[in-house]
Each structure stands twice: as structure tokens, then as C-alpha cells.
Amino acid sequence: MDGVTAHRPLRVVALGGGTGLPAVLSGLAAHPEVSLTAVVAMSDDGGSSGRLRRWQGLPPPGDVRNCLVALAGEGQPLGRLFQYRFRGSGALRGHALGNLVIAGATERTGDFLAAVEVAGNWLGTRGRVLPCTLEPVQLVAQREGALPVRGQRWLARGRGRVRRVWLDPPGVAPAPGVLRALEAADVIVLGPGSLYSSVLPPLLVEGVAESIQSSRALRVWVGNLVTQRGETEGMDAAAHVRAVVAHAGAVVDVALLHGDPLPAELEARYARRGVGGLLAHRRSLRAECVVPHFRELLAPGLRARHDPRRLAEAVLELAAGWGGRGACGEGGQG
């Protein structure tokens, strides 16, 4: 793509959280020609992260930990140790060891960013992991015909269509380095992941959406493989894009989506949970001024997960062939 030469790596910034962002990172980390920065959602208030947040007043470390481990590569012994969760019935039950390491390093240094960098050095990560903000925030969601829901951990437990989400307090500042990374990016990746609780929160931090709107980078939204109970039941890919645009403006050039129906056994398994494969139609996506790009992205197994290698190859294929955005989906690949 324009501006990328053989003399420097392709600069990719990926935003999100949960299990989706690590899939992007682990796939791209295997490509030495890529310089990676992860911008991680910081509104998690459940599980080990939520407990550390409430008890110690620390930023939630869980999604940051997962991204660090993803960038360390498969088979890294310390990475597997970071993911270990304590058992038993004591105060440590349920805590991931890596969360405690990051929390301890934060207390020791007084600096969450420095603690993340220390953990990354220990793990030998390829790339940077940045929290989207260092300020304490809560995710608030408004559903149709219901009072606002406060707290990310409650979002998936509710019923009804989510109308919008926002951060409380509003206008929180981005962490140092976030806007600079976005300004320098060649490719910006949003997702995959929970639309309202992983993909959108980093875009709601002050200045982030505006930086992506004005960027000349290729901006790729990666669609989930299935809809999500409590968040996106009944939404197709175009509805996901509309939600992103409603919250963050015009920040998507390409929708990268799995191209085939899910295997019947997998589809049936998710149907029993009240969700199904994400439907995507070229015409409806183009009507949203987005270029649809379909590829085989499903990982083998009994769960609907993106294959990191296939996902990385698809992103790099898009980057290599992107000719710049045009009016309402013209240009690039479809």
C-alpha cells in the first residue's frame, strides 16, 4: 500500500479486547515485516480484573495480559504461566498469575504502563501493548425500553437490543502513545470481539475516533463468526458497521468476514444458545460505504473462533492490495 516500502515494517494498530484482539496479534506477530501495536479496552470489571480493580484501584490487567501472551508467541513457557489461574477457595482463587504480576509491578513502579512494559520484556513480546486509557472508566449501555446498565460484566446478562454505549466519565484521555501510534499506522484493525464491550470502548476515548477518521491507513473491521447473546442477537454484519459508525463516525473502509456458512454441527451448537452465524451481504455492506472482503477465517474445533494465521494472512493481503478509499466503498478489494 502507499507509503510502505521495503525499508520499514508495515505498521499495524489493532484495537479491541477479549479473545478477539489476541487472535489478531498472535497471527500478525508471526510476520517479521509487521510492527504491531495493540490498543486495549480498559472497561473490564468482571472476574480477576474486576477484583483487582475494586480492591487495589488498578487498571484492569486481564485483556492486557492476554495481548502480551499473544505477542509472546505459542509455546512460550512464561506465557503459559501468565495464563495460569489459581484454584482452591482462598483469596487467590480465580486470579490469573499474569494479572497479579502486572498488579505487583504497578504497585512497585507506581506506573501501569511501565508495569506492562516490564511484563512484555519478560515475555519477549513482538510489539507494544497500550491500554486505551489509564483513567478509571465504566462502560454504560442503554437498551431499548430499559434503564441504562452500568458495568461491562452486566451487559451480556441483559436482554433486548443495545442502542448505544458510553464511557463514564466521558472524555477520558488516551494513554500516552495511543494517538501517536494511530497517526503513524498503515493499517488499523477493529475487532474481532464483542461489539459493545470490546470493540467500541477504545473508540470512545477522547481523540481516538477522530484520529482514525482522519487517518489515511487502511481501516479494517473484522466481523465475528457468530452473533452474541445479550449484545448482537439479530444483527447482521451491516448492522454491526452501522453501530460502529453511530458511535465513532466513518472509521471503516473494509469489512473482513468469514466467507462460508459455519459447519452444521457448529451452527446447531450455537443455535441452542440463541445465537447463530453472522450474516453478511455484499449489497448491504456496500450501502454502508464499506468494502466487503470474504475469506476462510474459521479455526478448526468445536468453537467458533478465528484462525490467527488465516486472519493475519487476510489482513496482509488487504494491505498489499489496497489502493486507497474512494466514495462509498469504491477502491480497494471486494
Main traits of this protein?
seven-stranded parallel beta sheet, alpha/beta, disordered C terminus, 334 residues, 14 helices
User: Count the strands?
Assistant: 10
Mean pLDDT: 92
Order of helices and strands: EHEHHHHHEEEHEHEHHEHEHHEH
Helix content percent band: 25-40%
Low-confidence stretches: 329-334
Numbering strands along the chain, what is their spatial order in the largest sheet? Answer: 3-2-1-7-8-9-10
**C-alpha termini separation:** 16 Å
Overall geometric form: globular
Roughly what fraction of the amino acids lie in strands?
Answer: 15-25%
Helix and strand composition category: alpha/beta
Concise overview:
By secondary structure, this protein is an alpha/beta fold. It is built from 14 helices and ten strands.
Write structural notes for this entry:
By secondary structure, the protein is an alpha/beta fold. The protein is built from 14 helices and ten strands. The chain has helices at 20-28, 47-56, 62-72, 77-82, 97-109, 112-123, 152-155, 178-184, 195-203, 208-214, 237-248, 264-271, 282-287, 308-321; strands at residues 10-16, 34-40, 128-131, 138-143, 149-150, 162-168, 187-190, 218-222, 254-258, 291-295. The radius of gyration is 19 Å and the shape is globular.
What is the topology?
Blueprint: E1 10-16, H1 20-28, E2 34-40, H2 47-56, H3 62-72, H4 77-82, H5 97-109, H6 112-123, E3 128-131, E4 138-143, E5 149-150, H7 152-155, E6 162-168, H8 178-184, E7 187-190, H9 195-203, H10 208-214, E8 218-222, H11 237-248, E9 254-258, H12 264-271, H13 282-287, E10 291-295, H14 308-321
Parallel strand pairs: 1-2, 1-7, 2-3, 7-8, 8-9, 9-10
Antiparallel strand pairs: 4-5, 4-6
Helix pairs in contact: 1-3, 1-14, 3-6, 5-6
